[in-house]
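FORM 7B: Structural annotation worksheet

SECTION A. Query
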Amino acid sequence: MNDPRDLFDLRGRVACVTGASSGIGRRAAMTLAHAGAQVIGVARRQEALDSLQQQIGDAMASVVADVADRSAIPALVEAISAPFGAPDILVHAAGVNTREAADDVTPEGWDKTLALNLSAPFFISQAMVPAMKAKGWGRIVNFASLQTTRAFPGGIAYGASKGGIAQLTRAMAEAWSQGGITANAIGPGFFPTELTAAVFDDPERAARNAAQTCAGRNGRMEDMDGPLLFLCSEASSYVTGQVLMVDGGFTAK
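SECTION B. Predicted structure
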């Protein structure tokens, strides 16, 4: 029997993480680099990417881009593939939540949410899958949400995009997994990120959310490391089309 720890070894792999400038995306880039991967971080903020690169070192390169700009995807794919070669692993962590009530949703807010949260993961993956097929190996990790299955106030556009992510993940698996490419999604509970700042800035609200979990607490960034590494490594070679809720049991209650 081989050492089970080798299943999580990412040495020799190239990973692309969108939304790498902050929050879960930043943590994902660090986790994958520590596991041995060369990482390309993609985000709109150069300074934030620079600070991340200082932490990770030579194992990281960065690309400044708006992943929601569909017309720029061919150039984006070329830029992502330049430093280390075509990625084996894609982590789609970029996202937005406009928090508009249903009666106040604007066409602009709706389109922005769907473009970044749902369209970008598909079209970027579509552009990068041929290189994965050529290698016979690939990992795609999307980000679902509690709102994939639950309706939250002010979350109609965000919830629609994250409900779509669950089906997109299943459809990606159906389309591409015979080529050795797995497609899965992580559904975070409440983690302290820029996207959830409004929640954690309200101690009473944060405490109510923690009380709704089975674990009795909100997420810590390190809680994401194991699930992400599992889905990005050889350890999950027979796991595809799944949404793994990393929510302390929030959706179990």
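SECTION C. Observations
The two ends are 39 Å apart (CA to CA). The CA atoms of residues 118 and 201 lie 27 Å apart.

SECTION D. Sign-off
Analyst initials: ____
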